[in-house]
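Read as amino acids, tokens; as here:

___
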Amino acid sequence: MGRENIREGIGESEVYLDFIESVSRAAKVDRPVILVGERGSGKELAARRLHFLSKRWQGPLVTVNLASLPDTLIETELFGYEKGAFTGALGTRKGRFEEAEGGTLFLDEIGLVPLSVQEKILRTVEYGTYERVGSSETRQADVRIVCATNADLQKLAREGRFKEDLLDRLSFEVLFVPPLRERGRDIMLLANHFSARMATECNLDYVPYFSPEAETLLLNYPWPGNIRELKNTVERAVYRSRTEEIKTIDFDPFLNPFRKPEPEKKKEDIILSDYPHIHEDVDVAFFRKALLESGGNQRRASEKLGLSYDQFRGVYRKLKDRIMQD
């Protein structure tokens, strides 16, 4: 992910703008920051913004995805090692702290660091020094640490799985990345951005747009995978769509890419029930809207949804309690 991809961190919802303001304020203070957020919510984008808005912006930004490393390699990955430090150490290697000198070190999934390595990180944060594995030479560390997690670090600390002293030192500022489902119309801003970019990649001579029904579907889906899931969903829709208008039948946020495609239906045969009851949250949203626009008349609501009255009643009986909630 290059610096230009910060443009994907777009949004105009109040919750997102408040978050960006907090990031900008924290960027100016050369202290550790912890970013807390769900998977795919944009924690790495926020870390990049923290770096490029800081006085260290001309220095390196080094990212370590701790989830991708076995526990036994995390220490050498962070601090490097000397030749002969262990079997297979045939030469000297710099660690990520050394590579990030003068810049920012982004530690993604900080909650996965073993306690033994947490102790060494704590010493580095407190005293600004460290040693490579297999060396007694003390090195200086001029590095700002930014961490990210979707875990409850306070709970891990209470359970003895995360050092309280380290948590205190890293949490000079704790910023909570808002999940996509709380960002309202930002969903469509991002969807249109991903759509335009995918259209270019597919060499299309037009920029696809979303039908009102498809837009409603996007806005009502809870997006457990957040921005990453939205990006994949929209890109797949643009790739598979044959027209400028992306309809609900063209793209399904819950589509299993491994599912064998069904024979193409004629436009007049496409009805809401053709979805494999993709997600109850979406069904509830559609039914509420149809009933609202139909003044509570179920037969007219079923017509709006393209369902037979019996089909409508079948789904309605199952989800009545949720549909009728305020």
